[in-house]
Amino acid sequence: MEKRHRVHFINSLSGYKSANLIGTIDQEGVTNLSIVSSVIHLGADPALIAFVNRPHSVPRNTLDNIYTAGCFTINHVGAAFVEDAHHTSARYAADISEFDQTELTAEYHSLIAPYVTQSNIKMGVEYRQRIDIELNGTVLVIGEIVEVIVDETLIETDGKLNLVKAKTVAASGLDEYHVGESLGRLAYAKPK
User: Fold this and answer.
1) What residues are paired with 179 via a beta bridge?
2) Residues whose CB is less than 8 angstroms from the CB of residue 107 and which lie 6 or more positions away in sequence, other chains included
3) Is 61 helix (H, G, I), strand (E, B) or coil?
4) Which of 43, 98, 28, 109 is nearest to 73 (CA)?
5) Are 37 and 15 in contact, with CB atoms under 8 Å apart?
6) In whole numbers, what is the pLDDT of the chain averaged over residues?
């Protein structure tokens, strides 16, 4: 396949993925915001979460900031601000904040890393481990969730988050976004 065609094909092959904004800050106090579609749950106790960072063949402000600050935020992308979220994928110099290039607003809680005010579901994460993936030069960044900021009305009685009500966005490929529709919840599966 032609290179660009292959990139789009392979990136959409795995289906819908979560769309999140990773918020970081550097030593000079410059914030960075980067959209990612590779956030994965690793465990509930401790609450571990990870994302895959692209190869370090060009400057990766997000990764450098995480190592320096020791923390980052993960913010669900919502339908109301998907265009600004997508714009954070543009390559800006390290001294330019994506918050200043979009209508997205930074807010702060217990961590020094910025959260996205517009996001309905926000996680504060402390950096725990890096795993280099030699096959393609990517990096798996693992962190522990230490803070969650979410509207209580989005939490179901059993603790599950209502992502449809939150208008959380999913991504497919490099540039297409979707909102979810619930097909219903099923009972805990047991052998027949």
Assistant:
1) 169
2) 114, 115, 116, 117
3) helix
4) 109
5) no
6) 94
Domains and CATH numbers, the chain: 19-175 (2.30.110.10)
The pair of structure tokens assigned to 129 is: 């481990």
- Give rounded-to-5 percent helix, strand, coil for the chain: 20, 40, 40
What Rg do the C-alpha atoms of the chain give, in angstroms? 17
Token look-up 């990096």 returns 139
| Dist CA 82 CA 19 (whole Å) | 9
Over the stretch 14-35, which tens digit does the pLDDT of each residue have?
A: 899 999 999 999 999 999 999 9
For CA atoms 158, 22, 42, 184, give the dihedral sign. positive
**H-type alpha helices, the chain:** 3-13, 61-69, 82-87, 98-101, 163-166
Beta bridge partners of 49: 41, 143
pTM listed for this prediction: 0.94
- What the block records as the tokens of 39 is 């956030």
